[in-house]
Amino acid sequence: MEPSLDQPEYAVFFCVMGAVSAIVFSTLGAAYGTAKASVGISSMSIKHPQLIMKAIVPVVMAGIIAIYGLVIAVLLAGSIVNRHSAYKGFLNLSAGLAVGVSGMAAGIAIGVVGEAGVRGSAQQPKIFVAVILILIFAEVLGLYGLIVAIYLFTK
Predict the structure, then answer these.
(1) Are 153 and 75 in contact (CB under 8 A)?
(2) Is residue 145 part of a domain?
């Protein structure tokens, strides 16, 4: 099929880069959040092994960030079959970057809060609810990126 001015060949490249950005950046954030929170769990579990299951919450929340990126990456990859305008290619790139970069930021925030929160709640159990609330606010940052990415994808 011959490329036209309104459907250049490079448009597909930007769509693919959007899918790659969505999964790579959000997974990097989820991996960092998991690793950082796991360090706190490991340190805390030496003196308080009974709290390990309660301390898994940040790790689960970090894993959800990767799912946001996976959803958008699959949506974008599924649309690669069709030829795109440059406009649609750039929209898809921005959708992938929106969910990917916000997922990375959310994963970093979850990791930092998760590590300190797990250690702190082992010392003072009353702060556990506050730590969970802070983790939820950090998770919502990734959700905002997912919402923006879905909005951009549907344009």
Answers:
(1) yes
(2) yes
